[in-house]
Design goal:
The chain is α+β, with helices and mostly antiparallel strands. The protein has three helices and 13 strands. The strands form three sheets. Strands 1-2-11-8-13-6-3 form a seven-stranded antiparallel sheet. The protein is globular, with a radius of gyration of 16 Å.
Length: about 210
Amino acid sequence: MMQDLFTEAREDLDDGAVLMRGFAVDAAAALLSDIAQVSALAPFRHLVTPGGFRMSVAMTNCGDFGWVSDRRGYRYDPIDPESGHPWPPMPVSFIDLAGRAAHAAGYAGFHADVCLINCYLPGTRLTLHQDRDEGDFTQPIVSISLGLPAAFLWGGKARTDKTRRYALHHGDVVVWGGLSRLNFHGIAPLKDGNHPIVGARRFNLTFRRAR
Ligand code: MD3
Ligand code: FE
């Protein structure tokens, strides 16, 4: 089974952060078709930060909650503010992959109630930040990369700590738990290119436990 193969192909990036290269390659077609289904109901949009800046990453969500940002702040909201309706349910392909990845990384009981979907076009970046709007930091975050490669910036506990760079490719999965859960991280501006399946884009799925 893939899980057993990946006990060999896991790379520890930091305390509690496990990289599994190619873990989602076989599931990519199903994941991409489900991203299209979700974004037909809850379209990708550019959120505004509390400081008034339009984010260059386009985002949407599925699951019981969605991560949103506006002039009032960041939060997890059960309602999509664009539509006034609940977020689309999490597709079976998402639930399956997130569960298998968490299990392979040593988090057997992980059940996400949010999947945040980021869409990057060439030039899009995500500045250094922490993910700290969730209710329980002992729960990991599972991230899946699809499409064009990105330079992932991995920092420390303080914004000014020096960063390391990792290339994240199509199908790579990282599980962020343990002491790494609150580290600063970001994505350098996406380089131009064309991915044979995804085109001139990159998607990142992050599975989270909001509450
Ligand atoms: C480390 N996304 O959505 S995935 C995000 O590629 C986010 O779109 C990036 O950072 C992306 O918040 C990076 C890797 C990642 C995601 C969440 C983390 C690393 C993390 C949470 C805690 C620590
Ligand atoms: Fe993040």
